[in-house]
């Protein structure tokens, strides 16, 4: 039995924990704002907020180091946010192939491996 005796979402738990510490609350709020700007693909607000938060004494040094790293990669991040496409599909396919190779411990013929990859990538057809 959990301590809440009710359904609690991950966000509710995170917010409750953040209420225990002003440092954690500030970090959580900044993270949520940055995540929102990133999802909206608003690079200007994203980097303006990072620059404003860089000198905050309330944020932990490790978090500020991560923000500094993002500023170093600003040009690449802006480019990624400006284009409407990504390579997620290709990366996902590569990951599936690697998992298949790892679990199968090799195939006797390359054709069998390729057939299995094609089969995994095809849309599922369900019969009643």
TrEMBL record:
Organism (species): Streptococcus danieliae
Pfam families linked: DDE_Tnp_ISL3 (PF01610)
Name listed for the protein in its UniProt record: Transposase
Lineage: Bacteria, Bacillati, Bacillota, Bacilli, Lactobacillales
Domain Transposase IS204/IS1001/IS1096/IS1165 DDE: 15-117
